[in-house]
Amino acid sequence: MKQILLPNDSALLQHRFTFGVATAAFQIEGAAALREPCIWDTFCAEPGRIRDGSDGLVACDHFHRWRDDLALIASLGVDAYRFSIAWGRVIRADGSVNAEGIAFYLALLDELQTRNIKAYVTLYHWDLPQYLQDKGGWLNRETAYRFAEYADIVSRAFGDRVYSYATLNEPFCSAYLGYEAGIHAPGVQNRQAGRQAAHHLLLAHGLAMPILRRNCPQALTGIVLNFSPCFAATTSAADQQAAWLADQYHNHWYLQPLLEGCYPDLTGHLASTDLPQMLAGDLDIIAQPLDFLGVNYYTRTVFTARDDGWFSDVKPSQPPLTDMGWEIYPQGLTEILVQLQQRYTLPPIYITENGAAMVDTLQEGSINDVARLEYYQQHLLATDAAIRAGVDVRGYFAWSLLDNFEWAEGYAKRFGIVYVDYHTQQRTVKASGLALQQLWSNRNKKA
Ligand code: FCB
Fold first, then answer.
1. Which of 29, 353, 354 for mutating ligand 1's site (highest number of atoms within 8 Å of CB)?
2. Do residues 195 and 249 make contact, with C-beta atoms less than 8 angstroms apart?
3. Cβ of 10: how many Cβ atoms within 10 Å?
4. Is 353 a catalytic residue?
5. Pairwise CA distance, residues 92 & 106, whole Å
6. What's the pLDDT score for residue 444?
7. 12 φ, ψ to 5°?
8. Residue 194, CA distances (Å) to 223, 262, 285 in order
9. Closest ligand 1 atom to Cα of 357
10. Fewer C-beta within 10 Å: the chain N or C terminus?
11. Is 409 a residue of the active site?
């Protein structure tokens, strides 16, 4: 069997480095009738939004199968499990707490504790309750305050069971894909809306941080952002400028306010009418000290200049590509980490997501996903290289534990290191999962 190998002296093999697997509530839980509807339920119900016309009503049925899933996670030899809380499973439309929802997560957290697996909890992985969207969603400043209340309720209830809290997962996707490009829920297409949603998401983060710290002083508290290093399609000045602008607009727009309390200055590029409206003091609220920054990395992006001075991305056509059509570009992970390290004073970093969708075939009960296995091999080496270059990377989470609902792509794209048969809900660990299991388990023995 093919293995994943790291140099003997790699920091990734040290006992203090954290390895884990990641999931998100809407993508795996199902049991939709036992929670409030969220913006993704609404979006899925709109014709043409999801490539295969599917939804999250059942997904991987993790809500009912969580005990078996945790046994599976434990069998992989991980240190940690990153998962998200469905807001609408714990807070009802009338503001009351859903005790059954809280009980579900408490049981999961207790089982993780029993199995000595650290819980990395994400509070918001895109599933805004529809009752808040009905009041404007992330375009309504009030949503940020509702998020802070939700964070308060959850963190009080969970007590010391949580090792790490991330407020938000990839606010870029919530804001840009959801409110600006319109390809994610709630499907709004408007530049100012995208900027406004981003601001309210960051405000929500900033309001929740001190609450989490107060309620759970022992937990590591931070945020998860996605990064894609931005390249110019050609050496022309216009394309170079386009890549710079895209980098400011997609990457730094989120990190700079968090770490430095200001947005990138895009005067001359972004109309003042597209800037977010904010109140005095908002940026101070946003720029809370972070215990960690979660970095999600999948690929790089290449940009060209548009005639109107804006940028557009060039879809990669050359292999190697994943089943998402994303270029496999492992050195981009090293590059973005080193770039960020040079540009900012960074908190400790966790790679909170990395992985690949590939076409999987189940043959005689096994999945020989060599391409995914190699993707992990290359990106673990890229992580190792970043650490050797001086970046303080403390952990790495594979996306994803299970094949699951891949948002606008539905169930057609499989990111799991474990295969899911959606008819029987049977789970089968893929070759990539077995290789990671071997890496993680051997390391544990050495520690
Ligand atoms: C990230 C999301 C995650 C998953 C991967 C493939 O942007 O955080 O839920 O869909 O992409």
1. 353
2. no
3. 18
4. yes
5. 18
6. 54
7. -65, -20
8. 19, 17, 20
9. 6
10. N
11. no
Q: What is the pLDDT of residues 315-335, one digit of tens each?
A: 999 999 999 999 999 999 999
Distance CA 433, CA 447 (A): 21
Strand partners, 168: 124
Provide the token pair at 178: 């959801």
For residues 323-349, average pLDDT: 98
Two tokens, residue 234:
């050609």
Q: Dihedral angle at the C-alpha atoms of 381, 295, 86, 208, nearest 10 degrees?
A: 150
- Domain-by-domain residue ranges, the chain? 11-446
Q: Do 73 and 21 touch, CB atoms closer than 8 A?
A: yes
Tell me, in angstroms, the distance from the centre of ligand 1 to residue 308's CA: 31
Which of ligand 1's atoms lies nearest the C-alpha of 406?
A: 10
pTM over 0.85: yes
Query: Of ligand 1's atoms, which has the minimum distance to the CA of residue 413?
Result: 6
∠ CA 233-238-242, nearest 5°, is 65
Domain 11-446 superfamily per CATH: Glycosidases (3.20.20.80)
